[in-house]
Amino acid sequence: MTPQTAILPAASSHALFLLLRRRLGRRIDGQLAKYIAGFHSQLMEFNKSQPDTPVLAAIGIGAECWAELFGRERPAELRAFPHIAGAIHPAPITNADLIVHLRGEQADLLHDVASDFLDAVRDWLEPVEVTAAFRRREGRDLTGFVDGTENPEDDERATVALVSEQDPDWAAGSYLHIQRYVHRMESWNKLPVLQQEAIIGRTKHSDEELPDDDRPRTAHISRVVIEDENGEELALLRQSLPYGTPGGDRGLYFASYCHTPRHFEKMLTRMVAPTDDGRVDHLLNFSRAVTGAAFFVPSIEKLTSLAKTDQPA
């Protein structure tokens, strides 16, 4: 089985996130399913004209509309974005059925692919939002700190991101969670660097984690680096990027791929709700989530199979 192309490669310079929902009264029918089934083949043809700067893509499908594409056959842990009981900070749930994650080195190519996709599906799906994101120098978030330092590397990326023998029918698929965060940049930029570092849990310029004794339990690093009962780290493969316009909303488009939704759910709980240590993530005093959605990103073969079968009733 072959994973969709946007999941595993290292960070791209640009990304587009198309968050979509079914139009009122519309179901996903055979015509739309066949278009989705052929999307990666069309993208391969498109990329032949720009072989040095290919567009990478992943299509994810939400739990609410899953049966309209695949019927009763479904990944073992497919479920909606979690509702976190006792949350102090917002973790909103967005009504979205499909996501298209595009990334690459040329923003104009992403624009063209996204425009063609939206034109093709307009009778069935409408955009909830379309967000263009970009990689900043040295991979830094708009807060000034390097993002994604905990990402797995090399072969570990596939081990973390892709379903394998635990659910063989859906091998090479991945559970994708997204959240769009809006940063309070004016308030953040007024903080002394030492206070920013205590909130993040790393130094700003040398990008070193603060020693355990000096790092607050409310630091962002302390909340998002999660472990199981045996002390093993529960990793995610992040493909997050900054987004925004000067003078407008600016923040981080968080996107994580994993072989299980449980890692993200545990991380989010530790960020927004007091758990065993009674703390939450103090970065959320300066960065607010405004969207949240969960999807499963099937293998290319599973998507392609939609063109060969009758639509579920």
Automatic annotation (TrEMBL):
Domain Dyp-type peroxidase C-terminal: residue ranges: 139-301
Keyword presence, Cytoplasm: no
Similarity section: Belongs to the DyP-type peroxidase family.
Transmembrane segments: none
Classification via InterPro entries: Dimeric_a/b-barrel, Dyp_perox_C, Dyp_perox_N, Dyp_peroxidase
Domain called Dyp-type peroxidase N-terminal: residue spans: 38-134
GO molecular-function terms, A-Z: heme binding; metal ion binding; peroxidase activity
Name of this chain's protein: Dyp-type peroxidase
Oxidoreductase as UniProt keyword: yes
GO cellular component, one term: cytosol
Keyword tags: Iron, Metal-binding, Oxidoreductase, Peroxidase
Species lineage: Bacteria, Pseudomonadati, Pseudomonadota, Betaproteobacteria, Neisseriales
Needed co-factor(s): heme b
